[in-house]
Amino acid sequence: MASTVPSCTTPVTPTDLTDRPGVWSERAAQAENAVLQRHLRRLVGLPMTGLGVVSWPASPGHRLLLRWHFWWQAHLLDCAVDAWLRDPTPARKRVVATLVRSIKLRNLGRLTNDYYDDMAWLGIALERAERLQLIEHRSAIAVLEAALYDSWAPEIGGGIPWCKGSDFYKAPANGPAGIIMLRTGKIWRAREIGHWIDGTLPDPANRLVLNW
After folding, report:
1. Is 209 helix (H, G, I), strand (E, B) or coil?
2. Rg for the chain, CA atoms, rounded
3. Nearest 5 degrees, angle CA 121-CA 105-CA 49?
4. Is 136 in a helix, a strand, or coil?
5. Three-class DSSP category at 13
6. Calpha distance 157→163 (Å, rounded)
């Protein structure tokens, strides 16, 4: 039977979506299968582990997860939660738990590192998975939230740096940090971050938020 999913080169119009309301769900399923088959690999062959390999076909270094990109795994975890929301199954719930377990194992037992943008993205993904009762990692979320909260720099007017010891303040660290502050009840700090971004990072010419 021919697939009802348009090819990547076929433009999709609003009429197409009206005629085929399942098109996005089908595409999401295809994308999910591609990521799982091409990118999810055991950590040094250990059972019940799996991390995202960052290239395909994967280089030897990527295949062995010598380079593994902490923030990339956080986004993959968020996508795994999306997949579960689209079609809740025990297998999808296991993927979420496996990713969290493997991130911690690859990071030598920790879910923190030196980069505040990494920790913010992971905190967002973990909080969402916890809220949906897919995992139970309240202590890890609290550790990430505390690291981000304590990194605020009032002595220079606010902002969260890119990484520990850095004087580089940018949107990819402060934006997700504001989200996790809001989700964990630190509304005052989320508001401060929002005001800092709005007052510091937009380009005066067009109000686009700059990455510094």
Report:
1. strand
2. 19
3. 95
4. coil
5. coil
6. 17
pLDDT tens string for the chain (212 positions)?
A: 343 444 444 454 555 555 565 788 899 999 999 999 999 999 988 999 999 998 899 888 888 888 888 899 999 999 999 999 999 999 999 999 999 999 999 999 999 999 999 999 999 999 999 999 999 999 999 999 999 999 999 999 999 999 999 999 999 999 999 999 999 999 999 999 999 999 999 998 998 888 76
Cα–Cα distance, 174 to 159 (Å, whole number): 7
Q: What 8-state DSSP symbol labels residue 67?
A: S
For 110, phi then psi, to 5°, come to -120, 160
Q: In this structure, what token pair is assigned to residue 196?
A: 């800092």
Q: pTM of the full predicted structure?
A: 0.86
Q: Quick check: 118 and 172 in contact, CB under 8 A?
A: no
Distance set, CA 12 to CA 8, 9, 24, 55 (Å): 9, 9, 11, 27
Closest C-alpha among 159, 155, 166, 168 to residue 195: 159
